[in-house]
Amino acid sequence: MSSPSEFLWYIPNDVKSGHRGDSTIDSHNSLETLTSHATALEAHGWKGALIGAGWGRPDTFTVAAALAARTTTFEPLIAIRPGYWRPAHFASAAATLDQLTGGRVRVNIVSGQDKLAAYGDSEGDQANRYARTKEFMRLVRRLWTEENVTYTGEHFRVAEATVEPRLQVRGERRHPRLYFGGASEAAERVSATEADVQLFWGEPVGGVQERIERLRHLSRELGRDLPPLEFGLRITTLVRDTTEQAWADAEAKVAEMARSKGEGWNDHRQAVAVGQQRLLDLYTRGEVLDDNLYTAPGKFGGGGAGTTWLVGSAQDVAASLRKYRDVGVTHFVLSDTPYLSEIKRQGNQLLPLLRG
Fold first, then answer.
1. 89-115, pLDDT tens digit by residue?
2. Residue 75 burial by Cβ neighbours in a 10 Å radius (0-12, 13-18, 19+)
3. Closest Cα to residue 187, out of 129, 259, 108, 118?
4. What is the C-alpha to C-alpha distance for residues 96 and 144, in angstroms, rounded to an integer?
5. Which of 39, 52, 45, 94 is nearest to 304 (CA)?
6. Rounded to an integer, what distance in angstroms lies between the CA atom of residue 159 and that of residue 38?
7. Which residues are paired to 9 by β-bridges?
């Protein structure tokens, strides 16, 4: 492998409790509760966690900054949206947090639909939205790595901009990694030239391999001038002590989803993106694909990383994740609910098998 595998989790920041079957408690998004997740991640072998973004949720950057201040090694993967942020504003905020935390910031750029008008954004057209994202990523990287930046583009402009504090180069890391997702042609062209890590949702290994090969070809075709694109998998992993118990619990969860019509799960169903539709269509190929990729959750309300699940014992799930690693995936963002107890279970049972 070109780089060692990294394992992150997911921390929900949501006004409503019970996200994707999580424990329902009044203090679910208090600083104390969220900090308990972050410190558990540190204690159980995880690198950090993705923190999602969207209008109507607590501000992701604020949550990430608070958790970084309460921890020592936890690395927040902060989801942000061009349009919600201006490039220079974001570059400055991220550089500041990176300096304060000793280089622990990671960034997930999100371009999908949101309640744009609520925060004054009007760029709903897909082609223009991704063109803006491309500009945003290129300009933020320049602001992190150059001084006195002057840029005039279709969507953004700056004049003699120097972000302070300057980012400290840490080995091969010149700036926070930029993660990016999306399966449309427009999204893949942005990723091929501008992203550091392309994130996939839980498709079968063959589908992920095809997309990796396509993105590598696109990178060459479009003249990528950055280090080679890396690849990540964002997926639900339902792990239990035995294969039989895992499948019993998975089927019980899906039965509850069917009963409640996916309440708390269908958070990617409002405007179905290309990547989401690819996942939903998997159910037509079978309820279980590859060895243990469970597609039934998508039929009963599962969205995003909750659409498909890898189900089994720690040994079963580790074997499946190794197959993704074999085709080029080196970044893994895993989760299951209840989030806190699964941080510990999977940190203790799954991660040692993946690092061994």
1. 999 999 999 999 999 999 999 987 788
2. buried
3. 129
4. 11
5. 52
6. 39
7. 49
Identify which of 99, 95, 82 has the alpha carbon closest to the alpha carbon of residue 194: 82
The label of the residue with tokens 């009007």 reads 122
CB distance 213 to 182 below 8 Å: no
Identify the band that residue 273 occupies on the pLDDT scale cut at 50, 70 and 90.
confident
For residues 336 and 13, the answer to whether their CB atoms sit within 8 Å is no
Q: Which residues pair with 11 in a beta bridge?
A: 51
Residues 34, 23: contact at Cβ < 8 Å? Answer: no
Q: Is the dihedral of CA 340, 346, 352, 355 positive or negative?
A: negative
Q: What is the pLDDT of residue 70?
A: 98
DSSP 73: S
What local confidence, expressed as pLDDT, does residue 123 receive?
75
Nearby residues of 317 by Cβ (< 8 Å), 6 or more positions away: 237, 238, 239, 292, 310, 311, 350
Neighbouring CB atoms inside 10 A of 219's CB total 21
Structure tokens at 27: 């203090």
Q: Is 80 exceeded by the pLDDT of residue 27?
A: no
Nearest C-alpha neighbor of 85 from the set 109, 58, 49: 109
- Indicate the Cα dihedral angle 138, 224, 181, 55, nearest 10°: 10
How far apart are the C-alpha atoms of 159 and 150, rounded to whole Å? 4
Residue 142 · residue 95 · CB < 8 Å: no
Q: How far is CA 53 from CA 11, 78, 166, 227, 248, in A?
A: 11, 8, 26, 27, 32
User: Quick one: which of 142, 78, 88 has its CA closest to 110?
Assistant: 78
Q: 149 - beta bridge partners? A: 161
The pair phi, psi for residue 155, each rounded to 5°, is -115, -30
- Distance, C-alpha 280 to centroid of its chain: 18
Name the pTM for this structure. 0.94
Helix spans in the chain (H): 31-43, 60-69, 87-101, 126-145, 185-194, 205-221, 243-259, 274-281, 296-299, 314-326, 339-349, 351-355
